[in-house]
Amino acid sequence: MTRPGQRLIVAQGGEGGLGNASIGRDVHLSKGNRQEEVARLSSREPGTESFLILELKSIADVGLVGLPNAGKSTLLSALSRARLEIADYAFTTIRPNIGSLTYEDYLSVKVADIPGLIKGAHENRGLGHAFLRHIERTKVLSYVLDLATTLNGRKGIPPWEQLRDLVVELEHYQEGMTRRPSLIVTNKIDEEGANAIHEELKRRVQGVPIFPVCAMLQEGVPDLRVGLRDLMDAASDPQGVDLSKITVD
After folding, report:
1. Alpha-carbon span 72 to 88, nearest angstrom
2. pTM of the shown model
3. Quick one: 122 exposed, middle or buried, by C-beta within 10 A (0-12, 13-18, 19+)?
4. Fewer CB within a 10 Å sphere, N or C end of the chain?
5. How far apart are CA 105 and CA 43, in angstroms?
6. Structural domain ending residue among the three candidates 54, 81, 96
C-alpha cells in the first residue's frame, strides 16, 4: 500500500447465518427438528484465513546513503534535532532513523539515516535488503562519503570508490534508483589532509553537487541544508549520479 486512504482486503469475511430469530416460535417443531432447523439457518460460508508478513518501508524525503561508519547518524543529528546512538564502530545504526528539517517558510523535510551498506548489499549481504528497501520511497539521495578512510596510514576505501560501490549496489537493487536528484556529502573535512582528498573527488566525479562538512563540528551543515532544499524544489528535474562520470583507478 503506497497511497493515503488506500484499502486492501486481505481476508474476506464469512456469510452470516440467519440466527434463532428467523425460526420464530413454531410449536409444531419438535426439539430435535428445532435443533436441525437452527443448524441449517445458522450455517453459512465461513470466512477466509490469511497469513500475512507486513513489511514497513520508511517514508522520507531524503535518504542518507553511505558505507558503515561514514558519519550518517552524526550528520542527521547535525541537520535536525534527532538524538541517535552514535559510536565509532560499523553498523551502529541497525534501523533507519528519521529526522526533520524545518525551513524558514515552514517546509518540513524528512531525512532518513539509512543503515550502512556494504558490497553485495543487493545480494542481501549485511542485511542488505532490510536496509535497501527503506531507500525505495525517498525522493532525494544524499551520498555520505568518508574523507578520512585513507588518511594517516589508514587502508580504507577512497571516497570515489565508496561512491562507485554505493551507486552499483543501489542500481543492482532497483534499476533507475540512482537517477533520483542527488548530492554528495564529504564528511570529516576537518581531518588533516582531507581537503586534498575532497579536491581529488571533485576532479573524479562530475555532474553532482558536492558539499564538504564536518558533521561532528557542524561545519558546512548550513550550506548542506540549502543544497537539500534546492534538490527538493527541483525534484521534478532529476540529476542523479551517473556511474560513467565517476573516475576510479
Report:
1. 12
2. 0.73
3. middle
4. C
5. 61
6. 54
172's grid cell? 543492482
Query: Of 54, 76, 99, at which residue does a domain stop?
Result: 54
- 96-118 residue pLDDT tens: 788 888 899 989 899 988 876 65
Task: Return the percentage of the chain with pLDDT > 90, whole number.
Answer: 38
226, amino acid identity: V
| β-pair type (108-113, 62-65) | parallel
User: What was the pLDDT predicted at 219?
Assistant: 96
Which residue type sits at 106?
Y
In contact, 183 and 211? CB cutoff 8 Å: yes
What burial class does residue 118 get, using C-beta atoms within 10 Å of its C-beta: 0-12 exposed, 13-18 middle, 19+ buried?
A: middle
Phi-psi region of 127 (alpha: psi -120 to 50; beta: other; left: phi over 0): left
C-alpha cell at 197: 582528498
Residue 15 has φ and ψ, to the nearest 5°, of: -90, 120
User: Which residues form the domain of 149?
Assistant: 62-245
> What CA–CA distance (Å, rounded) separates 106 from 44?
56
Helix (H, G, I), strand (E, B) or coil at 109: strand
- Count each helix (H run) and each strand (E run) in the chain, helices first: 6, 6
Residue with cell 435443533: 35
Query: How crowded is the C-beta side of 57, counted as CA atoms within 13 Å?
Result: 13
1: Cβ contacts below 8 Å, ≥ 6 apart: 8
Give the number of domains in the chain: 2
Residues in a beta bridge with 110: 100
Q: Are 118 and 157 a contacting pair, CB within 8 Å?
A: no
In 3-state terms, what secondary structure has residue 29? coil
| Co-location of 101 and 155 in the same domain | yes
